[in-house]
Design brief:
Strand order of the largest sheet: 1-9-5-6
Oligomer: single chain
Strand content: 25-35%
Shape: elongated
Structural class: alpha+beta
Length: 142
């Protein structure tokens, strides 16, 4: 008999906030603004979860239903990709990994978070920011 227990969801969250996947040279051109005949690079801010990343991790763990995962593997991994839109909502959630039940549950756990983010900005305009969260779960077989 296999009892899947989750003591913790080991996920080393490294959330690189990204604008669209734009090469660096194009991004620098986007940041340049002409003022009085001179080019000036304006500041860019990425989207931020207002309660902090530690609280975000905790919310994902609390929303995760381990009993919905069907697996014989000792560990499972997936990557959750999502976008924080101009209003601060999480949209376009997609999980990729080898276990479909884990992917579906990871997407559900992220979508269940209803707290708004502080949207990213470029030159004072709100913009969409892309995030990626790697997740790993470990099962203990007895």
């Amino acid at each position: 008999m296999k009892i899947i227990t989750i003591f913790c969801i080991l996920f080393c969250i490294y959330i690189p906030a990204q604008e669209q996947s734009v090469p660096t040279t194009e991004l620098n051109e986007l940041l340049m603004v002409e003022k009085n005949g001179r080019a000036k690079i304006e500041s860019e801010k990425v989207a931020v979860f207002p309660l902090g990343m530690t609280v975000l991790k905790k919310m994902i763990v609390e929303n995760f239903r381990m009993r919905k995962i069907i697996s014989n593997a000792e560990t499972e991994t997936c990557q959750i990709n999502f976008v924080v839109d101009k209003e601060g909502s999480i949209v376009d959630v997609k999980a990729s990994g080898s276990n479909e039940s884990f992917n579906r549950e990871a997407e559900r756990a992220i979508l269940k978070i209803k707290d708004k983010w502080i949207p990213g900005e470029l030159n004072g305009e709100k913009l969409r920011c892309r995030f990626r969260i790697p997740l790993t779960i470990s099962s203990i077989k007895k």
